[in-house]
Amino acid sequence: MPTVVCFLAALVSTPLVLLAIYSNFSIRLETRFLLMGNTLVCDILYLLFYTTITICNTLNLKTPKHICVLFLFVLAVTYFGGVLTAAAMVVDTYVAVLWPLHYVSLLPATRTKTFIMFLWFCSFLFSGIAFLTLNFTQKPLPCPLEVCSLPVILLVALHGDDVLKLCYILFIGIFLLCLSLILCCYIYLCYKTRETGIWKSVSSRASVTFLMHFTLLFLYFSPLILLLTDALLYMSQFIGLRTGLWVTLTICNVLIVLPKAVSPCLYGLRYRQIYNSLKLFLKLKKHRGIAPVR
Fold first, then answer.
1. Distance of CA 99 to the CA centre of its chain
2. Rounded distance, CA 174 to CA 107, Å?
3. Per residue in 201-212, pLDDT tens?
4. Which of 16, 75, 91, 231 has a CA that sits 20 to 30 A from residue 206's CA?
5. Which are the contacts of 31, defined by CB distance < 8 A and separation ≥ 6?
6. 2-275 is classed in which CATH architecture?
7. Can you tell me whether residue 99 is helix, strand or coil?
8. Nearest to 89, CA basis, from 22, 178, 7
9. What is the C-alpha separation between 19 and 140, in angstroms, rounded?
10. Which residue blocks in the chain are alpha helix, DSSP H?
11. What integer pLDDT is reported at residue 274 of this predicted model?
12. How many alpha carbons fall within 13 Å on the CB side of residue 250?
């Protein structure tokens, strides 16, 4: 099962990267690593709750309604938080490259922590609005929904009234707008730094870092594009219920969870500070495990 595999991969790598970030004082003072740590926390929480729901559905375990609502709310909060923090990481890179002399004053560690709290607040706010909209506008179904499944609920939401459909598309559209702004920032960064010589070599550090961030952002946002396309095709009756459900299942069980499993490995291998901190921690642990000779 792809979801379980991705969760196990993240369960091994994410705590190690978080340990390397939060156990090193100098790393904790850097804005990019604080944002990265917040992204990884959001991702591992999302995988934990989504994998729990998936396993319960696979074992045909009936989830109480209030527990299902709580799980889905946590999924929404952590997903929004991860996407918003990923966008904030791009803004951080943008400021660091274009205004290096003012970077420390603009984004110190204390301000970054406040900003991360603001991102969590926005995540709770957006999720609350989405759930309240779903609660007050959803029409009663012919058959009661007894399965706690995110793909099924996403598809059922399209059977609501026009207000619910509009909110569904609007939320996805907001994230796609964030993606457009992020792409514009990256294109402008490439344009401003093309004369510095850092892009001459394909294997240069700047090129590889840019490619890594671009790949992760593509993996984060491409499922939203596919969800929007699937919703529009389903509402236009170009695809049926079975096809729409199959596409939504593929997006939720594979495409959304994949970057959450891959990102900690890429971050840990790419950033020297994290890699060296983790290597030092493992080396100290190994030395402590060796008993002294008497």
1. 27
2. 25
3. 655 666 677 777
4. 16
5. 92, 107, 108, 109, 112
6. Up-down Bundle (1.20)
7. coil
8. 178
9. 47
10. 2-22, 25-28, 31-58, 65-98, 103-106, 109-137, 150-157, 162-193, 205-235, 241-250, 258-270, 272-288
11. 80
12. 10
Q: How far is residue 162's CA from residue 137's CA, in Å, rounded to a whole number?
A: 9
Specify the amino acid at residue 79: Y
Identify the pLDDT of residue 199. 61
Domain ranges within the chain, ordered by starting residue: 2-275
Q: Provide the token pair at 23.
A: 């156990």
d(CA 285, CA 117) in angstroms, rounded, equals 33
pLDDT (tens digit, 9 = 90+) per residue, 215-274?
A: 877 888 788 888 878 887 887 778 887 888 888 888 888 988 998 988 888 877 777 778
Is residue 77 within 8 Å of 128, Cβ to Cβ?
no
Question: Two tokens at 16?
Answer: 């190690």
In the chain, the amino acid numbered 53 is I
Amino acid letter, residue 178: C
Q: Which pair of structure tokens corresponds to residue 208? A: 């590889």
CA distance 263 to 213: 9
Which position has the token pair 């030092």?
A: 280
CB 47 within 8 A of CB 37: no
Query: What DSSP state is assigned to residue 158?
Result: T
How far apart are alpha carbons 167 and 257 in whole angstroms? 24
Q: Which of 42, 28, 113, 110 is nearest to 82 (CA)?
A: 42
pLDDT of amino acid 293: 44
Residue pair 223/215 in contact (Cβ under 8 Å)? The answer is no
Count of alpha carbons within 13 angstroms of residue 215, beta-carbon side: 13
> Would you call 228 helix, strand, or coil by DSSP?
helix
pTM of the predicted protein model: 0.86
Segment 168-177 long-range contacts (CB within 8 Å, at least 24 positions apart): 168/231, 169/228, 169/231, 169/232, 171/126, 171/130, 172/224, 172/227, 172/228, 172/231, 173/228, 175/83, 175/221, 175/224, 176/221, 176/224, 176/225, 176/228
